[in-house]
Amino acid sequence: MLRNCEECNRLFSHPTRVLCQDCYEQAKRSFELVKKYLQDNPGATVAQVARDTEVDLELIYEYVQEGRLDVIPKDVSLQCSICGAVINVGRVCAKCRNELRSTISSESSRYQGKSKNGTRVHILDNLKDR
Predict the structure, then answer these.
(1) What distance in Å separates the CA atoms of residue 100 and residue 20, rounded to the nearest whole number?
(2) Residue spans per domain, the chain
């Protein structure tokens, strides 16, 4: 599939990636730099990591949110997108994640086979009606 790289806008072909080969390699190097720096300096702040590795702050926060780092900077404080609780990794806390899972499973079993137009189950529509 032909597409433009999200980073440099060059045209490239790859079935799943959104970055060209050069930008993909650079992204891998940046991640490895941050990961190694944090392993060697576990008490570092995000600003120190960004300064010493020359990797953008937003990219470091993205790595933390994605849960890709084993060691996170000491001053990182993420908040749950739903309830606002402080979390270490991801976008949603464990409590909200479990509530979402139980709601989705109960709604899907409740409406299994039933739909508004007879062809699909619309869980989100049913959740909004509550």
Answers:
(1) 36
(2) 2-76, 92-130
User: Shortest CA distance to 38 belongs to which of 77, 72, 86?
Assistant: 72
User: What torsion, rounded to 10 degrees, do the Cα atoms 127, 88, 85, 44 define?
Assistant: -150
Tokens at residue 5, please? 């790289």
Place of tokens 């799943």: 16
- Cβ atoms of 27 and 50 closer than 8 Å: no
- Cα distances from 116 to residues 14, 28, 111, 112, 113, in angstroms, run 38, 46, 10, 12, 10
Do the Cβ atoms of 61 and 73 come closer than 8 Å?
A: no
Instruction: From first to last of the 130 residues of the chain, give the pLDDT tens digit.
Output: 899 999 999 999 999 999 999 999 999 999 999 999 999 998 899 999 999 999 999 999 889 888 888 888 888 878 888 998 888 777 888 899 999 888 888 777 766 655 555 555 556 655 555 5
Give the number of other CB atoms < 10 A from CB of residue 53.
Answer: 21
What's this model's pTM, rounded to 2 decimal places? 0.65
